[in-house]
Amino acid sequence: MIKKVEQNKELWELFTKKEEYDPILLDKYGRFSYYLSSQRNVFEPEVSSFLIKNGLNPEYPEGKKFAVCLTHDIDFVCPGMLNTAARTIKALKKGQFAQASILPFSRINKTWSPLWNFRQIMELEENYGSKFTFYFLTLDPGNEDYTFNIEELEGELGHISDHGWEVGLHGGHEAYNNPIEIKSKKQKLEKALKKEVIGYRNHYLRFKTPKTWEFLADAGFSYDSTFGYHDCAGFRNGMCHPFSPYNLNTGKEIGILEIPLSIMDTTLFNQMHLDFNQAWKFTEKLIDTVECHRGVLTVLWHNTYMQGNYLEFYKKILQCCIEKGAWAASGAEICRWWKNNIKVKTG
After folding, report:
1. How far out from the chain centre does Cα 208 lie?
2. C-beta contacts of 276-282 below 8 A and 24+ residues apart
């Protein structure tokens, strides 16, 4: 069906992201940002819309109308010293004396940290009958943003996986452009998890089109969920459905599924500078758009944002999608379902 897109030059260049192959400028993290793109209609999934009009009609389990994949990148499991002090003072002001007494020691015993919150996240999601995905960094001492050893989390990883949530790899800063790094970090997580890892998202959404897809496919990943703009929510290549990327250099489809990222917490509040009311109106519009196209809404909500007003915002997303009849699933579940039941091929 994608062959029909190829016949439309404008849509084909959007779908393949031809403009990202030889960019004039990247940001300081090597990312192709939305502000650099010629695409000005990022809030509308133009390629998915074309495919729907040409016969694409995805069906989801139990007759669900669309799908939602809520995910959590785990960058930190313990707050920094200044952050810990601020949290302690805040807890004291609220009269939360038990929490205030524990917080200063959370840097010694990470399990007391408010960011060691995997089980609380799972309990919340289970209340909605949902099981989603955690992506964990597996950095080594000396790597940028190293804050924990994945071996420290073996018990938690086992608990997460044994209860039906997915554990995927959150590749470090340079992994997106380093196939050796991707493979070694995959092996490291699999050793700690004691099972195969099939899903991936890169730290800071760093990504190089189309090389990162090729590296991930070669490393044995089944799917990626990095592909979204860090500075603007929406549909980076006009797709609100999973797709098999196409490499313009080789003229071939790449052997991996992309579950494109639509919304990230830091994008809404730090990059787009929306307040909570604005962010919700915008998010609700994206949910409606994905529902209309029978697509997959993929959301990244860091464990560091699972508190206060940000936690309430996350609950609103989850509740809204469930009430609209979405199939709530992990990246792995969506990957397996899409590959086995939906055919959107370039050939």
Report:
1. 16
2. 276/309, 276/313, 279/313, 280/313, 280/316, 282/233
Do 211 and 245 contact (CB within 8 A), yes or no? no
At the fourth CATH level, the homologous superfamily of domain 2-77+116-341 is: Glycoside hydrolase/deacetylase (3.20.20.370)
Contact 325, 287 (CB under 8 A): no
DSSP of 223-264: EE---S-SSS-S-TTS-SS-B--EETTTTEE-SSEE----EE
pLDDT, position 113: 80
| Rounded (10°) angle between helices 179-193 and 211-219 | 40
* Buried b or exposed e, range 279-308, using 16+ CB within 10 angstroms: bbebbeebbebbbebbbbbbbbbbbbbbee
Distance from C-alpha of 276 to C-alpha of 241, rounded to nearest angstrom:
27
Report pLDDT for 343.
Answer: 66
Q: At 296, which helix (H) or strand (E)? A: strand 296-300
pTM, two decimal places: 0.90
Between CA 342 and CA 56 the distance in angstroms is 9
CATH 3.20.20.370 location in the chain:
2-77+116-341
Question: Chain-centre distance of CA 210, in angstroms?
Answer: 18
pLDDT digits (tens, 9 = 90+) for 160-184: 999 999 999 999 999 999 999 999 9
Encode pLDDT of 197-244 as tens digits: 999 999 999 999 999 999 999 999 999 999 999 999 999 999 999 999
Instruction: Return the residue matching tokens 């050893």.
Output: 149
